[in-house]
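User: I'm preparing a small set of examples for a lab meeting where we compare how different chains pack in three dimensions. I only have the primary sequence for this one, and I'd like the structure in token form so I can line it up with the others. Please keep the answer compact; I'll paste it straight into my notes.
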Amino acid sequence: MFVLAFAAIQGQAQTTIESQSEAVVERFVRVVMNDGSVKMGQLLSDTPDVIYLDTRNLGKINVPKYLVAQMMDLTASEYDRLSISRAARNTRINPQSSRYFFAPSGIQLKRGEGYFQSNIALNSVSIGVTDNITVGGLLSFIGAGASLKIGKEIAPNVHASFGGIGFKDYVGELDRPIGLVFANITWGTEDRNLTVNIGTGTKFENSTTPITWGVSDSTVYDYGYTSYEYTITEYEEESVRPLLLNVSGMVQISDFKWLISENYFIRSVRNSTLVTNAPMVTFSDPVYMGGNNSGNADGVAILSVGVRNLSKRNGWLWDYGMVGVIGSDFGFGAPWVSATLPF
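Assistant: Understood. Below is the structure token output for the 343-residue chain.
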């Protein structure tokens, strides 16, 4: 009886040891070094002096404890995903939490992180200069531009940023470069968040409405036609400035997929200025000149929803979505496809 009991206890202890051994083998970790570099792998052993890892690229390595700043556990799917996306920096889990389809979130790129995004018509690259400053460039068939975003985490799971985008066309159709400035706040984690952006853009001159004018010169042609030159001494100049509200959200729906919604509400605000000290000469009859005084309620909504997928094969992120544009008297839909390579 004593022998049987001892054998049972010994067998149970051996099973427990084997289970613990298996648990250790299946533990995945991310080790952040004092110099900011990162090593990831299966944790084989953790002694007071050395961490022993089995890594995907370097095989089995010893990491001296005195060089380690932080160690965090990863699930098997997180380890697989981070290894594929090469997002091996500090605590980055989602390789593209700093943006939605196009709109920025308050979450910043880490120092040295970056990405290249393309949907053929528009190509962009962004790089984290520091943990709080991101700069970028844009290139398309019609022009080029640059972007800047400055931000930080202002509370646990609350990020805020501000910045701007500038753009200039190649052919000179625009009188001057156009720009957009924005500020935003993001609530949530890298894999589940909501962002509200507010912004405004470049002011454009919309129309000129004559108030007081007179004929200053005239020319009579041989065939009886008379051309008049008018001098307008008092007129209203109307300008338009867009105001923008953007609401975007992201939620992880599987190990390698995120559901994204990005929505804009844009309103054109008109402003008129009376000009009396800058006469304007024109050959057009002022009676037929004038602007579109339709008030301040010219608005449009742009709604979108789609999926971001991380390719297991090459680490590219693919965004697929549908975009709907809705105005006061029009509306249409279009697909959205873009590819992004984090680096």
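A couple of notes for your slides: Residues 1-9, 15-24, 87-91 have pLDDT under 50 and may be disordered. The longest helix spans residues 2-25.

User: Perfect, thanks.
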